[in-house]
Amino acid sequence: MVSYWSSNLTLKRIWSILWTDHRPHLRMFSLSLLHHLFNIQSFLLGVVNGWSIAFALIYGGSGLHILTFCVYAYFLTLFHFSEFFMTALTNLESLRPDSFLLNHSPAYWTAAMCSWIEFWARAWIFPSLCSLYISSIGILCCIVGELFRKLAMCHASVGFTHQIAVRKHRDHQLCTKGVYSLVRHPGRP
């Protein structure tokens, strides 16, 4: 089994070969591999997204907890795909396989899996705690959060990055318009 760190280093190596190596055959191979990485991640997100919609339509009437989890899975896959898509639209130079944010960190996936276990344990032990009112508030928060984040990506455009900056770059211009008049992104100190 390949660990997160070694696979991440491999992705970084592929990316550096793609943009720095001038041997056409190696560059073409790297470009093909890069497209496969984009395609595989998009396909998997699409499958999970489709399953969440299908399960919601088929089994949603048998319990609010099933419908709630399906909506959660829908928004989770939508978030990951839209991160890649908005990066492609607003900052093509920084587009990488990591732009899906699927390999964020082991801690991210550990927290996600723990939340899934907690959700299903609570639904099984305390099924009456599942509330349509609270789920509706959660859906509204997801929609508002997604819109706010995508607006931020549009306003920052090429200045938006998924990497947290620890030093100010010489060419950095602080974006203070749009949503950045209210908040600051940690990618820019």
TrEMBL record:
EC nos: 2.1.1.100
Q: How does it sit in the membrane?
A: Multi-pass membrane protein
What Pfam families does this protein's entry cite? ICMT
Q: Which UniProt keywords apply?
A: Endoplasmic reticulum, Membrane, Methyltransferase, S-adenosyl-L-methionine, Transferase, Transmembrane, Transmembrane helix
User: Methyltransferase: is it a keyword of this entry?
Assistant: yes
List, alphabetically, the GO terms of the cellular component aspect. Answer: endoplasmic reticulum membrane
**InterPro entries, per database record:** ICMT_MeTrfase (IPR007269)
In terms of Gene3D superfamilies, this protein maps to: 1.20.120.1630
Q: Which GO terms describe its biological process?
A: methylation
Q: Where in the cell is it found?
A: Endoplasmic reticulum membrane; Membrane
Q: Which reaction does it catalyse?
A: [protein]-C-terminal S-[(2E,6E)-farnesyl]-L-cysteine + S-adenosyl-L-methionine = [protein]-C-terminal S-[(2E,6E)-farnesyl]-L-cysteine methyl ester + S-adenosyl-L-homocysteine
The answer to whether UniProt assigns keyword Transcription to this entry is no
Q: Which GO terms describe its molecular function?
A: protein C-terminal S-isoprenylcysteine carboxyl O-methyltransferase activity
Q: Which residues cross the membrane?
A: 37-60, 66-86, 131-148
The record's listing under PANTHER family reads:
PROTEIN-S ISOPRENYLCYSTEINE O-METHYLTRANSFERASE, PROTEIN-S-ISOPRENYLCYSTEINE O-METHYLTRANSFERASE
Q: Which family does it belong to?
A: Belongs to the class VI-like SAM-binding methyltransferase superfamily. Isoprenylcysteine carboxyl methyltransferase family.
The molecule here is called Protein-S-isoprenylcysteine O-methyltransferase
Organism of origin is: Globodera rostochiensis (Golden nematode worm)
Q: What is the lineage of its organism?
A: Eukaryota, Metazoa, Ecdysozoa, Nematoda, Chromadorea
